[in-house]
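Notes from hallway chat w/ T.B., transcribed later so I don't forget. T.B. wanted the structure written out for a chain they're using in a teaching module, and asked if we could keep both sequence and structure tokens in one place. Agreed to drop them here.
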Amino acid sequence: MSSNAANTPVLQVKSLGFPWETLDPFLFCAYHDDAYPQANADMGPAASLAGRTIGQDFSRKDGWSMYHGEKVPGFPPHPHRGFETVTIVRKGLIDHSDSLGATARFGGGDVQWLTAGKGIVHAEMFPLLDEKNDNPLELFQIWLNLPAAAKMSEPHFTMFWSHDIPRVTATDDQGRSTEVAVIAGRLQDAGAAMNPLAPPPDSWAARPDADVAIWTLRMAPGARWALPAAVSAGTRRQLYFFKGDSVQIAGQAISSPSAIEIRADAAVELINGEVEGEFLLLQGKPIAEPVAQYGPFVMNTQAEIAQAMADYRRTQFGGWSFDSETPVHGRDPARFAVHPGGREERPAEMPASSRA
């Protein structure tokens, strides 16, 4: 539904589907919230897979899906060109492998930012490691478009570990807290204490005037917080209210789950309802170029889509160097990343409750 009040900052409210609709420069957001059961010896679910279309299971039967996985849930190797993926893992783990030679295991609030550029193939598998307890998985994957000038840029692999992500806690006059995790952009009222993370070099988010922000918000019951105005004129923003019961935005009551487009040129007061509320904010100045999409390829014209398909058939975007078509990285839960060229990172372990 759209708001008809002339002066309200709430421009539009829609129900959330799958995937979530987004505004330019974003292409969409997929929210996965899977209640996986105990693990079996193969790092898959210790449960019958009967009744699922294996290889194409988005059923949410029993509260979870196998997606394109056959034994381990997830997404085996698939190509991309012309955009970026930003993957925020709040619970569980993702095992990443790609045609650049990079591998990673990440979760617990970690973020992977992958510029597909001229072409990359990657796998994203969801290993289940706990054979005694349930294995919940919760993540966002956001597709951020690239402008025409950067669509054929070199692919780029970036990890933002949970402990490096700026987090700001604001407390209202009743002592109720709002916590903001700042994956992209700068939270203006946080002052000099918050050093923003650097997006990949060819990203639309790397341009200061593009005003790209990706934030997650967690509001205590009854908390009040003023969402600050965006930096640039022409910025558009959408707030995804995905957990909670209700929120008032500039006095307008909105129920969860909803996608809420908000005017970006002024601060807006949020008042959470009676239970903890959680939100994802996506904002940016539109790229405002034609979008031609065919599955995993996002270009500006259909001719460029045809070229992408031809290039992939010819080159496989660098090919697949791993022995397995569904690579997982063993039973050790420790998070790590091996970058193209071999540089290795092993972040400090985070508490199990940490999430973005």
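Follow-up for T.B.: The domain at 10-15+165-284 is CATH 2.60.120.10 (Jelly Rolls). Might be a good example for the class.
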